[in-house]
Specification:
This protein has 87 residues and is an alpha/beta fold. It is built from 4 helices and 5 strands; from the N terminus they run E-H-E-E-E-H-H-E-H. A 5-stranded mixed beta sheet has the order 2-1-3-4-5, with helices on both faces. A hairpin with a 2-residue loop joins strand 3 and strand 4. The longest helix has 12 residues.
């Protein structure tokens, strides 16, 4: 029942340590957080917009769905950036 955190997600690793959440740091092929058969990808709002526009998000989602039963993409950060790109 281990929570795995991708080794490239330094801020996320620090947050888990700060909150005393048990976890294991590992190089993940897809996603930022994995627990059991659940995969979570976190995207900064600006990165989310870029990945939608160039199609990366579809490839990432497909890779996640091929490897995990449940997949979540969480968008965080300044959402006004997202609105400015689509309005």
């Amino acid at each position: 029942m281990t929570i795995f955190i991708d080794d490239r997600e330094k801020d996320l690793i620090e947050e888990f340590k700060h909150q005393n959440i048990p976890h294991t740091i590992k190089h993940l092929l897809v996603g930022d957080i994995v627990k059991d058969n659940v995969c979570i990808e976190r995207k900064e709002a600006s990165d989310f917009v870029s990945s939608v526009m160039d199609g990366r998000i579809l490839i990432q989602a497909q890779n996640m769905l091929q490897n995990y039963e449940r997949v979540f993409i969480i968008v965080h950060g300044e959402l006004s950036y997202v609105y400015s790109k689509f309005t």
